[in-house]
């Protein structure tokens, strides 16, 4: 039963149980278009969650990434409109770089000024959001203004199906992007010195320093990657919903952190995996989406997320204590 | 305890307070110079005494949570839920006519009890999760914050509960001896908390737990119980802020005052509270609240957008962190 010792296995088991239960309540859950929709809602949150995973692994926390994502997508699309640029790769590089630059500010404050990451990221998040809304603008960029290249790119489907009534639905190709990012982060964490140093720093920063890891590089990589992924995910989100809204993602930090913790990452650092995070994100998105098909009023969503956070953290604390004993 | 150590700690504290007073005066002078005819009006200061108490109470609550190295991200949720529960109670027991005309003192007293009781229960839940189950304060209160806000949403279904009895509004809008009632409440509560933290076993224990949790356990302090009570206190302060907020605006809504969360953290840190635990004073936090209120009212007079003021708050927080690190290094 060694496999049950792994957090991922436990999460997967809970996930399957939850799917069966939801399916029993409303069999429409198993419809292919519902499942495809579910996968689609995973992409953006999932990519952000991978960034948050890195931060949690290093023993920190990040509540600024929703603001970074909003800033990256809005600035990028504004720049595209201003220059009339029609491309896909360039904008995504730009959005990623914007996120990366913001992440570097977090790294600077966390590492150099030795400040608690929560407080730093509260500050940077509110600065970036305040700047975006106060200086850049508050108006949404609608579909008629959105660069068509981005929309076409995000519209790509892997498979397209036709429903009995003739309407079409498909599995978005963006899931490949999500998979690629997840694989990259997985390889980074598993097989590079930087990746191992993130675990080491999260486990015990002082010990990691004495062993010879460069904490500054580690922190820079962690927060810059988190910012970069947020920026990238922001633009992807905007391309997928055909809308650039500078007020987007408000309050998303809690969902994403909840998903990562649900995936078995420890808030104290040093523990967590890409696979667990993907499962955690899927679980959270599924539960939130399924409330609707289970005919639960949407006002309950927050309550459910709150309870999930509390239960998931209580479970991880319980797990960590048992392991230490 | 060695006396030499004591005096040094005292001087440090005085230094910090002196620094804060200096910042406050600087802000005051700068704002007066920037808006000479509008900033120095009596009306401006009067309105500050109505607006700042709710934020002040939330900041003191945040400071108490930080004393043991924790944080309470659910205070705003507690405040809103308290106001909403009291509001639903009034709408259930009072007719529309009574709501607008009747002072309804007995009902308002029950409402206050409901609101404070909400804070008590919510704080106890936080305390249970943090002290007993040992969940990290950040995650525990993030989760409960969602829970409280979520419950508030479920109760109201989204829109605000508007229309509170007159005597409830008096708590947020009234004046006694020409002074704002919220301001008087703040003075009394701040004094009480200051006494509690500096002159009672509870307060001293909290400081010691925050300074060195392990040593506190070995010294035989009942850390679990003390931390539990500190979160109960935080919850009650949150609900008190909720009473004042709903009294002042005559409405309660699930997502009121969300920007207060960052501001409360900022004010606590600016007021000399160590977020890692062990240090923090009510006086420091009170001066910091005043400083930031002057700052934002000055910017508002200059017609800065609310978003830009958020930007300034965030920048101020980071600046304070940077300066503090620089000063501590010397």
Strand content of chain B: under 5%
Q: If classified by CATH, what would the architecture of chain A be? A: Orthogonal Bundle
Task: Give the terminus-to-terminus CA distance of chain A.
Answer: 20 Å
The total beta strand count of chain B reads 4
> How many helices of chain B?
15
Basic shape of chain A: globular
In CATH terms, what is the architecture of chain B?
A: Orthogonal Bundle
Residue runs with pLDDT of under 50 for 5 or more positions of chain A:
none
Major β-sheet profile of chain B: 2 strands, antiparallel
Sketch the topology of chain B as an H/E string, one letter per element: HHHHHHHEHEEHHHHEHHH
Strands of chain A, count: 2
Q: What distance lies between the first and last C-alpha atoms of chain B, to the nearest angstrom?
A: 26 Å
Secondary-structure element pattern of chain A, one letter each: HHHHHHEEHHHHHHH
Number of domains of chain A: 1
Radius of gyration of chain B: 20 Å
Structural class of chain A: mainly alpha
CATH class (first level) name of chain A: Mainly Alpha
Largest contact between chains:
A-B, 48 and 47 residues
Structural class of chain B: mainly alpha
Reading side by side through the largest sheet of chain A, how are the strands ordered? Answer: 1-2
Helix content of chain A: over 70%
How would you sum up this structure, described in words?
The complex is a heterodimer of chains A (325) and B (330). Helices cover 72% and strands 3% of the residues of chain A. Chain A has 325 residues and is mainly alpha-helical. Chain A has a single domain (2-319), classed as ABC transporter involved in vitamin B12 uptake, BtuC (Orthogonal Bundle), CATH 1.10.3470. Chain A has a two-stranded antiparallel ribbon. In chain A, a hairpin with a 5-residue loop joins strand 1 (157-162) and strand 2 (168-172). Chain A is globular, with a radius of gyration of 20 Å. Chain A starts with 6 loop residues before the first helix and ends with a helix. The model of chain A has no long low-confidence stretch (mean pLDDT 85). By secondary structure, chain B is mostly helical. Chain B contains 15 helices and 4 strands. In chain B, strands 1-4 form a two-stranded antiparallel sheet. In chain B, strands 2-3 form a two-stranded antiparallel sheet. In chain B, helix 4 (75-93) crosses helix 12, helix 6 runs antiparallel to helix 12 (223-249) and helix 9 (181-199) packs across helix 10. Chain B is globular, with a radius of gyration of 20 Å. Mean pLDDT of chain B is 82; it is low at 1-11. Chains A and B meet through helix 5, helix 11 and helix 13 of A and helix 7, helix 13 and helix 15 of B.
């Amino acid at each position: 039963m060694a496999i049950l010792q792994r957090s991922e296995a436990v999460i997967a088991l809970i996930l399957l149980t939850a799917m069966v239960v939801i399916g029993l309540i409303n069999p429409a859950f198993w419809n292919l278009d519902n499942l495809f929709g579910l996968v689609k809602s995973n992409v953006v949150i999932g990519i952000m969650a991978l960034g948050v995973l890195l931060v949690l692994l290093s023993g920190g926390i990040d509540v600024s990434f929703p603001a970074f994502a909003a800033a990256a997508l809005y600035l990028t699309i504004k720049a595209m409109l201003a220059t009339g640029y029609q491309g896909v790769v360039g904008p995504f590089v730009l959005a990623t770089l914007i996120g990366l630059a913001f992440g570097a500010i977090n790294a600077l404050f966390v590492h150099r000024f030795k400040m608690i990451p929560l407080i730093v990221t509260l500050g940077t998040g509110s600065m970036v959001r305040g700047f975006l809304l106060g200086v850049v603008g508050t108006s949404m960029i609608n579909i008629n203004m959105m660069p068509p290249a981005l929309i076409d790119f995000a519209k790509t489907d892997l498979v397209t199906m036709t429903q009995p009534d003739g309407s079409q639905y498909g599995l978005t190709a963006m899931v490949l992007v999500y998979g690629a990012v997840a694989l990259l982060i997985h390889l980074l964490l598993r097989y590079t010195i930087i990746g191992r140093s993130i675990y080491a720093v999260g486990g015990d920063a002082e010990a990691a320093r004495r062993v010879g890891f460069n904490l500054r590089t580690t922190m820079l990589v962690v927060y810059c990657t988190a910012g970069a992924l947020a920026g990238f995910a922001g633009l992807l989100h905007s391309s997928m919903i055909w809308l650039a809204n500078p007020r987007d993602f408000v309050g998303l930090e809690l969902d994403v952190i909840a998903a990562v913790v649900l995936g078995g990452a420890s808030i104290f650092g040093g523990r967590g995996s890409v696979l667990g995070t993907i499962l955690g994100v899927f679980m959270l998105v599924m539960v939130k989406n399924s409330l609707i098909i289970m005919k639960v009023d949407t006002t309950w969503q927050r309550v459910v997320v709150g309870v999930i956070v509390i239960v998931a953290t209580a479970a991880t604390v319980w797990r960590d204590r048992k392991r230490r004993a | 305890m060695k006396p030499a150590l004591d005096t040094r700690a005292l001087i440090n504290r005085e230094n910090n307070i002196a620094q804060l007073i200096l910042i406050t005066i600087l802000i005051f002078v700068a704002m007066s110079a920037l808006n000479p005819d509008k900033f120095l009006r009596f009306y401006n200061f009067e309105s500050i005494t109505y607006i700042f108490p709710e934020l002040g109470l939330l900041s003191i609550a945040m400071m108490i949570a930080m004393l043991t190295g924790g944080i309470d991200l659910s205070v705003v949720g507690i405040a809103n839920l308290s106001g909403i529960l009291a509001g639903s109670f009034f709408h259930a027991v009072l007719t529309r006519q009574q709501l607008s005309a009747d002072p309804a003192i007995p009902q308002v007293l029950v409402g206050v009890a409901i609101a404070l009781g909400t804070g008590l229960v919510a704080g106890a839940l936080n305390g249970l999760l943090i002290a007993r189950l040992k969940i990290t304060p950040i995650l525990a209160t993030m989760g409960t914050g969602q829970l409280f806000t979520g419950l508030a949403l479920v109760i109201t279904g989204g829109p605000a509960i508007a229309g509170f009895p007159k005597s409830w509004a008096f708590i947020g809008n009234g004046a006694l001896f020409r002074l704002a009632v919220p301001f008087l409440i703040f003075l009394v509560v701040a004094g009480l908390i200051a006494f509690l933290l500096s002159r009672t076993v509870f307060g001293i224990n909290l400081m010691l737990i925050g300074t060195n949790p392990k040593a506190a356990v070995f010294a035989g302090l009942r850390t679990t119980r003390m931390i539990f009570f500190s979160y109960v206190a935080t919850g009650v302060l949150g609900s008190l802020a909720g009473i004042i907020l709903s009294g002042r605006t005559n409405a309660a809504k699930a997502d009121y005052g969300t920007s207060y969360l960052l501001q409360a953290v900022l004010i606590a840190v600016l007021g000399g509270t160590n977020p890692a635990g062990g240090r923090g004073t009510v006086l420091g936090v009170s001066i910091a609240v005043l400083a930031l209120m002057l700052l934002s009212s000055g910017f508002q007079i200059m017609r800065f957008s609310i978003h830009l003021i958020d930007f300034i708050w965030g920048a101020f927080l980071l600046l304070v962190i940077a300066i503090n690190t620089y000063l501590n290094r010397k």
